[in-house]
Amino acid sequence: MKIAPPTADETGRLEALHSYRILDTGVEKAYQDIVELAGAICNTPIAVITLVDADRQWFKARVGLEAAETSRDLAFCAHAIHGRQLFIVPDASLDERFCDNPLVTQAPNIRFYAGAPIYSHDGHALGTLCAIDSKPNALNDFQQRALGILSHQVMQLLELRRTVHELDQTSQDLRSNNASKDRLLSIFSHDLKTPFFGLVGLSHMLCEGWEDMPREEIKELADDLATSAEGGLRLVEQMLEWAMLEGKGFTKGTTDFDLGLLVEEVQSTLSPVAKQKGIDLTIHSDEPLRVHADADMCRSLFQNLVSNALKFTRPGGSVDVVIFAEGEVVECQVRDTGLGISPGRVKQLMAGNSTHSTAGTSGETGTGLGLVFCKQILERNRGMLTVTSEPGRGSTFKVSLPRSQDGKRRNL
After folding, report:
1. CB 35 within 8 A of CB 49
2. Taking the model in full, what pTM does it have?
3. What's the rounded Cα separation, in Å, for the pair 30 and 200?
4. 139-159 residue pLDDT tens
5. Backbone phi, psi, residue 326, to 5°
6. What phi, psi does 58 have (nearest 5°)?
7. Pairing outcome for strands 87-89 and 69-71
């Protein structure tokens, strides 16, 4: 039996692993869904998310395996983390590195192993997503690609976990300052739920329907899962940055950017939520229109407005985002066919005098502070927000932002 040596970056690798605060945590459905899907796609009785610690391999999620951890000396995954490619052992009983390994000669009697390394964004191998069989086996190209995609999703979940923990630490500091900080944290709590709804919904679709889906549809859902996870991570990072900026009282910096492209990014993040509710989410823009503002803040602004439009629109309805030039400004209207808001309620929300939240059409919860958050962003970017709404017929949220000078010259 050959014991895998430590990685070249072992000290940094272990520091990175421990920074996620994931070791020895309980069962979480998001991770469990991934191993169940990996086992189903690879057609193996065992699938595991393994994290390689200093002297052990610990299993965050597993199917077909009872042990919660084993010695690192015995770990196939300790070999797999030395490379970036899928690590495959077709028949461990014929491989000199593993033929006398107790995991091969005894239960679980490993013969086939395929491990996709899980790499952090800063390049450290934390572990693997692996598929295991008690008989020799092989994976086709589709199965290999799917295992790699799913290992990337594990990493996205770990990054979200760490960032949310950092946000929680920031939140504790902000709560001690003043009431305005508390209101901002409530908005964060509301906004952070949206990408997770998409992740959970897509995971359920894959786990429950993969047997009847063509490969192209599975690939499409996996791509949507990746888009939702990456969008969620970006949103968490923006929320952390906003918290720091709010404490310092300044913006990151204004720049010229295409508002239509930014709104399309928001659409990609929220499309899983729209699909779940059967809502048609569409962007209308006749031409590239550039604005001069803080792009990260504007992304959070439209994330909030479109998310709330989806929240209060009934299944089968529509949310349209319309972008057009209006003199010295670019106007973006978020129109929905939802529940609508009474004039008195609009006035309360815009003034921030109420923290009461109305449940969405599918029972979604919120804070009732989203419009205050949007107003704060626009005040810092020389913009304006107006709301027109009719109960039972829907709402239109109009955002005006300064048009960039180069955009005005180009469109003349």
Report:
1. yes
2. 0.49
3. 7
4. 999 999 999 999 999 999 999
5. -140, 85
6. -110, 140
7. unpaired
